[in-house]
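TL;DR need structure tokens for one chain.
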Amino acid sequence: GLKNADLRTAINRAIDREAIAENIYKQTMQPPRGIVPAGMPGFQQNFCVRLCDFSPSVARELVQKVPGKFRTVTLEFNQGKPHADVAKAVKADLEDVGLTVRLRSYPFSKYLGRLSDGTQQVYRLGWIAEFPTPDVFLSSLFKSDSPDNHSGFTSAKVDTLLEAAHSEPSENKRLQDYVAAERAILRQAPIVPIGTFQTHWAAHKKVQDVVFDQMGGFDAVGISLAAR
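>> reply
TL;DR here they are.
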């Protein structure tokens, strides 16, 4: 069923990401605008605007184009909060536009094994970057031979762009390859971006000269304390 492009797009357009970010994650998440999050090199503002924007009316029209036998989907997630709350919110949104949704949860250790088996349909998964590069998201999750490509997405064009980026010495040209790869991935809608986590730091008002890097870290050497 998920090979149907109308179904994948309908799922994207049916989900109220603003409500999930505000009601479930409170101040720790912002709605997405693509796969590569804000602050990362290669981030494109409003990159996912046509796919990610909430529109139940558009989603209902798309669902009507989907054969009836494909209008039932199983959403899997790892147990615990807030994952169950997100799954229930997504279920309500999808059923509002005409889909039937089954929820299925697993302990996290078993869940990872199930994703590797490739027998899941729609699934929830978070991803955190270890290095400040779009490759952490794009190659890890969407390159055909990546062990973390649990969606089974394959695209010769995307593979070629990612491989070109790996060997490109020019940072500007390398980022262009990543942007083109992300655009090509989103065009096929194998993913439903829900949101990007935000990190909040607090410091006493006397602390000065704290500079955060792209990963949210900082070098303590440059930090100073204001004199009383």
